[in-house]
Predict the structure.
Amino acid sequence: MTSGVNRGPTCSARQRREPHRGTRGAGEITEQSHTLALLDDGAWAAFDNACTHEECPLSEGTLTDNQVECYCHGAVFNMRTGEALVGPAVASIETYPVREEGGEIQVELPG
Protein backbone atom coordinates (compact mmCIF):
# COMPACT_ATOMS: atom_id res chain seq x y z
CA MET A 1 0.00 0.00 0.00
CA THR A 2 1.18 3.49 -0.80
CA SER A 3 1.45 5.84 2.17
CA GLY A 4 -0.03 9.31 2.01
CA VAL A 5 -3.05 8.21 -0.02
CA ASN A 6 -6.50 8.86 1.40
CA ARG A 7 -8.35 5.58 1.65
CA GLY A 8 -11.90 4.81 2.57
CA PRO A 9 -13.03 2.71 5.53
CA THR A 10 -12.17 -0.97 5.63
CA CYS A 11 -14.78 -3.60 6.44
CA SER A 12 -13.51 -6.88 7.87
CA ALA A 13 -15.14 -10.29 7.88
CA ARG A 14 -13.60 -13.12 9.88
CA GLN A 15 -13.00 -16.22 7.81
CA ARG A 16 -14.55 -19.13 9.72
CA ARG A 17 -13.43 -21.95 7.41
CA GLU A 18 -11.71 -22.41 4.06
CA PRO A 19 -14.41 -21.60 1.49
CA HIS A 20 -14.79 -23.54 -1.71
CA ARG A 21 -13.69 -21.90 -4.96
CA GLY A 22 -16.52 -20.14 -6.76
CA THR A 23 -18.50 -19.51 -3.58
CA ARG A 24 -19.83 -16.12 -2.65
CA GLY A 25 -21.60 -14.33 0.11
CA ALA A 26 -23.66 -11.18 0.04
CA GLY A 27 -23.96 -8.88 2.95
CA GLU A 28 -24.52 -5.35 4.07
CA ILE A 29 -21.28 -3.43 4.45
CA THR A 30 -22.08 -0.04 5.97
CA GLU A 31 -25.32 1.06 4.32
CA GLN A 32 -24.65 -0.44 0.89
CA SER A 33 -25.02 -3.97 -0.36
CA HIS A 34 -21.92 -5.69 -1.72
CA THR A 35 -20.96 -9.19 -2.75
CA LEU A 36 -17.75 -10.98 -1.85
CA ALA A 37 -16.64 -13.84 -4.12
CA LEU A 38 -13.77 -16.29 -3.95
CA LEU A 39 -12.44 -16.69 -7.48
CA ASP A 40 -11.03 -19.88 -9.00
CA ASP A 41 -7.44 -18.67 -8.56
CA GLY A 42 -7.93 -18.10 -4.82
CA ALA A 43 -8.23 -14.30 -5.03
CA TRP A 44 -11.20 -12.46 -3.54
CA ALA A 45 -13.41 -10.02 -5.45
CA ALA A 46 -15.78 -7.50 -3.88
CA PHE A 47 -18.35 -5.64 -5.95
CA ASP A 48 -21.78 -4.02 -5.85
CA ASN A 49 -24.52 -6.58 -5.36
CA ALA A 50 -27.06 -4.80 -7.61
CA CYS A 51 -27.06 -5.46 -11.35
CA THR A 52 -26.94 -2.16 -13.25
CA HIS A 53 -29.78 -3.28 -15.53
CA GLU A 54 -32.65 -3.74 -13.05
CA GLU A 55 -30.89 -4.00 -9.67
CA CYS A 56 -31.35 -7.76 -9.26
CA PRO A 57 -28.95 -9.18 -6.64
CA LEU A 58 -25.78 -10.48 -8.27
CA SER A 59 -25.19 -12.66 -5.21
CA GLU A 60 -27.92 -14.93 -6.59
CA GLY A 61 -26.25 -15.13 -10.00
CA THR A 62 -23.92 -17.71 -11.50
CA LEU A 63 -20.15 -17.46 -11.04
CA THR A 64 -17.88 -18.68 -13.83
CA ASP A 65 -14.15 -17.97 -13.83
CA ASN A 66 -13.92 -14.20 -13.18
CA GLN A 67 -17.49 -13.44 -14.23
CA VAL A 68 -20.88 -13.24 -12.58
CA GLU A 69 -24.10 -13.65 -14.57
CA CYS A 70 -27.25 -11.95 -13.28
CA TYR A 71 -30.06 -14.46 -12.89
CA CYS A 72 -32.75 -11.97 -13.94
CA HIS A 73 -31.86 -11.18 -17.55
CA GLY A 74 -28.43 -12.71 -18.16
CA ALA A 75 -26.19 -9.64 -17.90
CA VAL A 76 -22.56 -10.65 -17.29
CA PHE A 77 -19.92 -8.66 -15.40
CA ASN A 78 -16.20 -9.12 -14.85
CA MET A 79 -15.85 -9.46 -11.05
CA ARG A 80 -12.29 -8.05 -11.02
CA THR A 81 -12.93 -4.91 -13.11
CA GLY A 82 -16.72 -4.50 -12.88
CA GLU A 83 -16.99 -4.20 -16.66
CA ALA A 84 -20.36 -5.12 -18.17
CA LEU A 85 -19.48 -7.83 -20.70
CA VAL A 86 -22.93 -8.99 -21.90
CA GLY A 87 -26.18 -7.00 -21.99
CA PRO A 88 -28.78 -6.01 -21.31
CA ALA A 89 -26.67 -4.14 -18.72
CA VAL A 90 -24.35 -1.55 -20.26
CA ALA A 91 -23.06 0.22 -17.13
CA SER A 92 -20.28 -1.35 -15.08
CA ILE A 93 -20.59 -2.31 -11.42
CA GLU A 94 -18.25 -0.86 -8.79
CA THR A 95 -15.46 -3.10 -7.51
CA TYR A 96 -13.48 -2.73 -4.28
CA PRO A 97 -9.97 -3.75 -3.19
CA VAL A 98 -9.85 -6.89 -1.04
CA ARG A 99 -7.03 -8.29 1.08
CA GLU A 100 -6.63 -11.08 3.61
CA GLU A 101 -4.88 -10.10 6.81
CA GLY A 102 -4.70 -11.89 10.15
CA GLY A 103 -7.43 -14.38 9.25
CA GLU A 104 -9.79 -11.64 8.10
CA ILE A 105 -11.03 -10.67 4.67
CA GLN A 106 -10.86 -6.89 4.40
CA VAL A 107 -12.79 -4.87 1.83
CA GLU A 108 -11.76 -1.26 1.24
CA LEU A 109 -14.78 0.96 0.60
CA PRO A 110 -14.86 4.49 -0.81
CA GLY A 111 -15.22 7.18 1.72
